[in-house]
Amino acid sequence: xxxxxxxxxxxxxxxxxxxxxxxxxxxxxxxxxxxxxxxxxxxxxxxxxxxxxxxxxxxxxxxxxxxxxxxxxxxxxxxxxxxxxxxxxxxxxxxxxxxxxxxxxxxxxxxxxxxxxxxxxxxxxxxxxxxxxxxxxxxxxxxxxxxxxxxxxxxxxxxxxxx
Amino acid sequence: xxxxxxxxxxxxxxxxxxxxxxxxxxxxxxxxxxxxxxxxxxxxxxxxxxxxxxxxxxxxxxxxxxxxxxxxxxxxxxxxxxxxxxxxxxxxxxxxxxxxxxxxxxxxxxxxxxxxxxxxxxxxxxxxxxxxxxxxxxxxxxxxxxxxxxxxxxxxxxxxxxxxxxxxxxxxxxxxxxxxxxxxxxxxxxxxxxxxxxxxxxxxxxxxxxxxxxxxxxxxxxx
Lengths: 163, 223
Fold this sequence. Notes:
The complex is a heterodimer of chains A (163) and B (223). With 163 residues, chain A is mostly helical. Helix content of chain A is 78%, strand content 0%. Residues 85-104 of chain A have low confidence and may be disordered. Mean pLDDT of chain B is 91; it is low at 219-223.
């Protein structure tokens, strides 16, 4: 991690690959559900990345890492309890897009009509099949904002396909 | 076995790896905050010192009171700095010192005479003035501490915010003891020290909103 803080990409990649199974085991014990584990694992890796400047190389690495993982798991469980209805649209989007055979052939030219941000969100989530969190990281935005963009893209496409 | 998305994320994060400026150790950050904030408040209050300050500074009880406030402020600032680093918790020694210092500061606040004969209107009028004065003084150190915590990665943002509020208010209380000539227990508790609770609650709410934002941001912090 000390090398990663100095910008050593190979060392950082190696570190993340080494800690991934440890984090997965910890999260599996806390969350149980395999889908949740994958989601929260990615969230944890993102937070490790965002918080890497706080790690003190003179101190043990594991407490720092596991604190982030436990916190991410706790946040996920809290969100699951209070999950709002606005998450439904993106799930419904996936179902509708998968079942809409008549629209898929005409999709490409329709995507050109979308604003770039909405198109990117739709492509990342629907066409490349990325999770919302990974897609948000790729797009350089928050998961919430990405969901909104993807949902607006779906509504626009649905309107165009309906016409 | 690692899934495809996680592998892609690891590649993405490794590609984004830029050098970062590590945080100073929490104890050092706390000390830096005390020095910087106290210097600023000192400059703000230098022309408003209580007229009998020279007399009070020759009394051991007054000096001990000021010293206990400085000690408690530093201890709470240390806790706030620890809250900005994942996996760092206060040691038993730090917790014990903080509790002891809090008891001493509270004890000193009770040692002053109590004037039950004063009129409610006068007590309130003067007190609200002092409260406003204390709030204004607390703004600067609290803002500085919030910025310092925000630089880190607080896993409990509400708690971190509350600690920033307490530390800021305590430092303001120190300078209020240097500027306010009213050494009366009710006045000190109601208008100087007592509001530390609501201040902590307000900062906890602000912290929950603002200090936790690093978890929702996608970009790393480059040097």
